[in-house]
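Input record, target 12 of the design panel.
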C-alpha cells in the first residue's frame, strides 16, 4: 500500500452519506499518483453522465475528512471511479484511462454496500464475485432510478429480471399475483441460503400471502387462499413438501392451462 493510500485510510475512515442512511466505509477508491479534480472537470467531457448523476442518490455521497471535525467533501464521480487527475492529464480515452471502472469491479460498489457484499457470499447468489456478471447488469449507477427492480412502477417491476429470466417473467393466461409486486417478493437477487435465491425455503414463503385457516376441527380441513385443502393441516405440510414441489402448484410464475398455477 502506498503512502498516499495509507494516509487516505487514516483520514478517510469516515461516513458516507447515501440516501438518508449513513454508511461506514474504509476509504474512497485510490489510484496511485492521482488527485481529485472535481465533478466540474468530469462534466467537460461527460456532460450527460454528470447531469444524470446529479439526479441520483449516489450524487449525495460525501466524505467526512476527519472524525473530529464536521467537514465533508462531495466526491461525485470520483467517489466510485477514483481520483481523476491522471485520466484528465492523459486526455481521457482508453489509452489514458487510469480510472476504476466500477461496473467491472464490484469491490468499488462494496465499499459502501457492505450488506450486499455479505449476501453475495451466501451459498446461492448471482455470480458477481466470480466475475460472470457485474452490478451494472441490474443497476444503472448513473441513472435516476438506481434500484430499478425495486422502485420501478408496478407494471415494470420485473423488467430488470426479465432481461435474463424471460420465461419466468413472460405473460401468462393465469398469472401469479405475486409477480405484480415484483420478483423480489419471493427472491433475494443478491444472495440467499435457499436454492433459487428464495427468501424462504418452505411453505412459509407461500403462506405470507395465502393465509391458512382451519375450517373445522372435526374434519381437519384447512383453507389456503380461500380454497379448501383437505388433509393439509398445519403439520401435514411437512410431509407433503412445499406448495410448489409436491406436484400441485408447480407453475409458480404463471400458468397457461390452470387457474391454480399447475402445468
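The sequence produced for target 12 reads:
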Amino acid at each position: 500500500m502506498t503512502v498516499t493510500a495509507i494516509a487516505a485510510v487514516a483520514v478517510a475512515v469516515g461516513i458516507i452519506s447515501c440516501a438518508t442512511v449513513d454508511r461506514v466505509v474504509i476509504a474512497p477508491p485510490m489510484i496511485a499518483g492521482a488527485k481529485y479534480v472535481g465533478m466540474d472537470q468530469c462534466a467537460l467531457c461527460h456532460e450527460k453522465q454528470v447531469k444524470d448523476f446529479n439526479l441520483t442518490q449516489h450524487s449525495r455521497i460525501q466524505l467526512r475528512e476527519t472524525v473530529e471535525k464536521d467537514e465533508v467533501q462531495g466526491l461525485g464521480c470520483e467517489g466510485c471511479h477514483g481520483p481523476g487527475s491522471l485520466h484528465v492529464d492523459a486526455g481521457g480515452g482508453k489509452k489514458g484511462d487510469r480510472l476504476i471502472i466500477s461496473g467491472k469491479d464490484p469491490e468499488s460498489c462494496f465499499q459502501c454496500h457492505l450488506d450486499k457484499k455479505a449476501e453475495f457470499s451466501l451459498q446461492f447468489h448471482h455470480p458477481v464475485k466470480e466475475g460472470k456478471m457485474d452490478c451494472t447488469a441490474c443497476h444503472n449507477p448513473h441513472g435516476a432510478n438506481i434500484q430499478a427492480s425495486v422502485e420501478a412502477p408496478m407494471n415494470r417491476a420485473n423488467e430488470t429480471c426479465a432481461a435474463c429470466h424471460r420465461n419466468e417473467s413472460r405473460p401468462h393466461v393465469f398469472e401469479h399475483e405475486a409477480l405484480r409486486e415484483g420478483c423480489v417478493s419471493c427472491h433475494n437477487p443478491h444472495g440467499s441460503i435457499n436454492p433459487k435465491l428464495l427468501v424462504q425455503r418452505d411453505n412459509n414463503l407461500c403462506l405470507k400471502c395465502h393465509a391458512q385457516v382451519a375450517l373445522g376441527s372435526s374434519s381437519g380441513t384447512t383453507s389456503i387462499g380461500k380454497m379448501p385443502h383437505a388433509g393439509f393441516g398445519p403439520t401435514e405440510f411437512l410431509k407433503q413438501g412445499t406448495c410448489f414441489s409436491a406436484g400441485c402448484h408447480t407453475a409458480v410464475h404463471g400458468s397457461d392451462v390452470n387457474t391454480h398455477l399447475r402445468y
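The chain has a mean pLDDT of 75.
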